[in-house]
Design goal:
The protein is an all-alpha fold. It has 6 helices and no strands. α4 packs across α5 and α4 crosses α6. It binds heme C (HEC).
């Protein structure tokens, strides 16, 4: 009997932790999208050698991304990235990076 109770407790624990993970993602909708940028710009926007996003405002980042998306700015790397997102997603990404300290 206690075995069954113990496995119920484990199952309950799993259910609670996946709810917490889901809530964390809802609270930071831009983070998942921005994770695509971490490799070059760093998890906090202070990239390992690439242009730093740290200290920029949401509007600045969004404006730059729209310029890259148009193909008129940059050397092509960022254009390819920016083209893959909707305006709504670019705003979420910009907001997320602007909020990093
Ligand atoms: C493969 C590496 C790479 C990835 C991944 C990448 N970037 Fe970039 N990013 C660059 C490079 C290189 C530049 C400078 C390029 C240029 O001016 O054309 C740049 C420039 C920028 C700039 C302009 C910064 C400035 O000061 O002018 C912004 C904003 C930016 N990236 C945002 C992003 C976002 C948001 C993502 C994720 C969607 C992303 N980047 C993903 C390499 C990358």
């Amino acid at each position: 009997m206690w075995k069954r109770t113990a496995s119920m407790a484990v199952l309950f624990g799993l259910a609670v932790s996946s709810v917490q993970v889901a809530q964390a993602q809802v609270a930071q909708p831009g983070r998942l999208l921005a994770s695509n940028c971490f490799q070059c710009h760093g998890t906090n926007g202070k990239g390992p050698g690439f242009d730093s996003l740290a200290g920029k405002s949401t509007n600045e980042i969004y404006k730059e991304l729209k310029e890259f998306q148009s193909g008129k700015e940059g050397n092509g790397i960022m254009a390819k990235h920016a083209m893959a997102y909707t305006d709504e997603q670019l705003k979420l990404i910009s907001t997320w990076f602007a909020a990093q300290k």
